[in-house]
From TrEMBL:
Record GO biological process: defense response to virus
Family: Belongs to the CRISPR-associated protein Cas6/Cse3/CasE family.
Gene3D superfamilies: 3.30.70.1890, 3.30.70.1900
CRISPR associated protein Cas6 C-terminal domain ranges (all copies): 114-249
Lineage: Bacteria, Pseudomonadati, Bacteroidota, Cytophagia, Cytophagales
Alphabetically ordered keywords of this record: Antiviral defense, RNA-binding
Protein name per Swiss-Prot or TrEMBL: CRISPR associated protein Cas6 C-terminal domain-containing protein
Pfam families found in the cross-reference section: Cas_Cas6_C
Native source organism of the sequence: Persicobacter diffluens
One Gene Ontology term of the molecular function aspect: hydrolase activity, acting on ester bonds
The UniProt record lists the keyword RNA-binding: yes
Keyword RNA-binding recorded: yes
Entries under InterPro entries matching the protein: Cas_Cas6_C, CRISPR-assoc_prot_Cas6, CRISPR-assoc_prot_Cas6_N_sf
Amino acid sequence: MRIRIVFILKNKGANVPFHHQFLLAQLVKGIVVRGGNEKYRGFNHYNFSGLKGQTKISRNGLHFFSSRVTLVFSSTDQEFINYFLTELFKFPTVEVGNLILIPEGVEKEETPALTEETKFICISPLVLIVPGFNDSQGKRFISPETEDFSDMLYESTMGRLADYGHYSTEQLAEFTKFQVVPDAEYLRKIKESQKKFARIYPVYDQDVKYEVRGYTFPFTLYAAKEVQEFVFHSGLGAFTHKGLGMLDVANTDLTNRTTRYEW
């Protein structure tokens, strides 16, 4: 299930870093732990976007000028979402960077129809490699047009599906179809304009800072419907519970996809 959490922005013009997923990850983890439910202390089958609103760019990052800011939050476990929302709304305000946010309401997104062939866009960077301590491997560039790129995402997804525990070994063995095919025209235009679709981002885990390479580009995923649904709700790649690898279906109407959510 995917929801949109709506916040009132108390201090218009305040800013966050361009990439602020690590700040949101700290906020989410803090709320989950403070709630005291041991069932969810180590739970990581969730995903979230960056903050959405009217922004302006400066050397200090993204400045928000809209009266409201939205966060897309997603999980395959509705009970976890309800737990998180209950704990979040106990706070009169929360802070992300310099933003002071007042939790106001929640909307539920309508799940789009997913098939064995789905074109996705990345709404947060997609990461392939989990680096070790004092290890630069996480920054290694792997071309999305190679088999290695798709194979690494397959291994990551199957491992997460196994950890999720809702599919038997026999069912997992049937999920052999998996291929990520990047939008070649998009990559061509990006290269011609000398822009980047792969950048280095900070990730914090166990109080240790890692640097990882994240990719943002449209692609088509060929996989079983169950796999499509899993990555749509839980993200794709590494560090999805840190707000990385969040996807949305390309060419969908975002304006008519929500209803008010009560929990």
